[in-house]
Design brief:
This protein is of the alpha+beta class and 107 residues long. It has 3 helices and 7 strands. The longest helix is centred in the first third of the chain and has 11 residues.
Amino acid sequence: MDDKDEVQERLRATSLKLGVYRHYKGGLYVLFAESVREETLEPMVHYFSLEKKTRWTRSKSNFGETVVLPNNSGVSRRFAYDREATVHELCQAFGFEVDVKLHGWRV
């Protein structure tokens, strides 16, 4: 087993739950993928801002780290799991546009 195999095994063993996370400052983000940066073999996460509609990448360790809240009012995870993502939110995160038309249905 080489270094890349070991990193991939660790990534699978410690994977984060995909879904919506709340940033400690309040924004909501869809965590939609984990990967390994090839040059450094560092585990990375990919997430989407529901407010700004932008995609971001950061190290997995940074995503899950604990931060000191403003005015030393306590500590919190940088991103905390909030809930499962909806199909619409996942489609946005992946950049898919979905147009659903229902024919013959009465509401």
